[in-house]
Amino acid sequence: MAQQHLDPTDPVAGAVTGDALAGYLRAQATEFLRALRVHRETGGEGGAHARAKSRPAGNGSVDSVDAARALRRSARRISASLHTFRPLLDPDWSEAIRPELAWLSGTLAMEHAYAARLDRLLLALHRLSGAPVFPAQAGTGIAGGTGIAAGTAGDSAAGVHSARAAGTAADGPLGAAADSPSRTASDAPDPAADGRVAGAASALRQAAPPHAGPPAPAPTPDRGNLTVGAAKAGALLERQLTLARTRAHSTALQALGSSRFHAVADGIALLASEVPLTAAAATADLRPLAAAAEERLTDAVAALPLVTAGHPYNAEALIHGLSPDPAPHPQDAPWHQVRLLLRLHRYAREAMHGGDTSVDVRLLAAGQSLNRHRDASEAAAAAAQAARTPRIAPATAYALGVLHADQRHEVEAARFAFQQSWQMQRVGTS
Amino acid sequence: MAQQHLDPTDPVAGAVTGDALAGYLRAQATEFLRALRVHRETGGEGGAHARAKSRPAGNGSVDSVDAARALRRSARRISASLHTFRPLLDPDWSEAIRPELAWLSGTLAMEHAYAARLDRLLLALHRLSGAPVFPAQAGTGIAGGTGIAAGTAGDSAAGVHSARAAGTAADGPLGAAADSPSRTASDAPDPAADGRVAGAASALRQAAPPHAGPPAPAPTPDRGNLTVGAAKAGALLERQLTLARTRAHSTALQALGSSRFHAVADGIALLASEVPLTAAAATADLRPLAAAAEERLTDAVAALPLVTAGHPYNAEALIHGLSPDPAPHPQDAPWHQVRLLLRLHRYAREAMHGGDTSVDVRLLAAGQSLNRHRDASEAAAAAAQAARTPRIAPATAYALGVLHADQRHEVEAARFAFQQSWQMQRVGTS
Known about the structure:
Two copies of one chain form a homodimer. Chain A is an all-alpha fold.
């Protein structure tokens, strides 16, 4: 951990002044403007709209997604630096632009968040069904996968695509559900999801070998297949999260075309040429402010239930798994807060050590655990929310319940992982 | 661990002969006959039938349950000893009585297993709902708990009773479900469970303060209450497992009155007076046979995926959580097998060291982990099975899905705990 105020062997033990901060902010602003240019050149079609295009021509989309990510990345860093080193910056300017940067990175993040949430949940459904994530017939699945797999072309990892295509191509229960006990529980139809399932089923039929035929009595259901419930749950989540994602995409496009955004871009352009420091900033020491950021982090971590989190399988994260309250778990909030404080601390280190300093892998690991915590927490909420859809089949609801609990255990696992990497940091620096 | 063939400091390093085995078998047979006498004197009413009696008069039931447990306990030990030390015993006699003892302890165990499974699942439902397990109003709950809490009077721990009574007395969502989103998902009625829920709800109304009234809009749903889904899931499990338990009780009573049982009792009576050892047994060394039992255990443990199990949150146990196959998880079988081999090893140690030897707490801990593994595995299967009940409400199915996943994580946690205690044993004996 960066205890630069304690560690006499720190390479930057000499004073780090406002000049270093100005250099860092200029570099981030330049990166922001570069990413914005790329994003405009590639048409900003990185998201849901990319699915309307043919896949081979999707390179522009990939670039656009990278550009959007770079935009968010530099916006976060600028915003964090304005916060941590507030006393060194012209207060009028920095207080005005900081909320705008937060609005921008929040707006740009939503589309990616929905896409990643859907991928996480569909992957989990396959894992929970014992389906192979990289099956041999993935190629067939992609070729025939007009139902589900084409939904998110553009910004997902190829591995995730394979997994989702495999779901489309998964054989057995969908075609031969007559002997599946869960079939008896699906009397109440799920009109919302049925269309999707039918789509997946037809894709399945295209991909299936000729001898498989329609509803033939399959011998023994293979454990590697999706149940009707899992397939319907996946289709329901696909529908709901794709809709949310499409809306987020439109919102992001609107935001990037708005006068509000242009004001932000102007502010960043100013930053790239001249950082509005206070008069005293050029010679002021950054370290006390960075140390204060670290202290806020340390205090927040100290308030976490780390002893419990370090005890594997403590079953804390699922305590409200059946709570009637659909709101996010209150127990997650302090962890989300630490995630933000850890990021502020990491960016403050970057500002002081320059962008070319070696990355602290332990800080990175802790941060990744907290990202995983946030993602799993929100995915669990999405599963619980989907289970409240009216008139879904019991088998669908059951699968969503299993999925919800699985993601809450991911939450608990992420807390454990954070505790482990945090303890390691303590040992490493003491 | 008992590595008496390796450890020169073992207190019984001298030869242990068939005489010790005869003494052990006689003691267990005497205990069996004593327990049988108590069981007959108390009327064998320890189980489901006890609920027809009033609670203050239930002491006989408690004695009867203890007696049934003692019967199973000694039957297991006799059967295990006949197996491990087979070459030292009259083969005709031991081969004839061993399957009969297995039948007897298996038959007697079922009723307790169903009761314990129900308690485990209801406790988990409360934990998952964030409901306090020992709430202040537990007394009220017991007094008014004619719906659910009276179902298992007699052989459960008082704490469990409090928890279940608390469920009956839980306020809020049942009465004020109109504003709960999950209510919208319960259009499909669950005739099987509704009667029970109505019972619980009426008990609730009896226990509720007068101002609570029927369907009044509650302010904010408290996280400590059961959702409609959790309450219905609990009622469904209660109904299914109580039925299974009542049948098991009848089967056990029939078994204890059968001529087949009387033949077993006669065999045990013979054992209490004269153990049918072979001619060479009196001077034969028990240790090679006990060592062979330990070796079978060690080999089986070595075949377990202990590296995975020792990695917390490995998510292995839930891999088939949505599998269409309702059969028990094949991945659980080797653990169940180790559980049996560990028991054989423990009883072999008892036979050699005498009943008064100090208990190896590490062996006990490992065995308890495997018991927990078995219990959670079977509870998870019961939840999955209940979710296949036709025409249940989606909210019920959702709660059962969460419950199933929770119990599968208990399975994983038990494997982790076993791995930990097993590693400790290795360190302790090396």
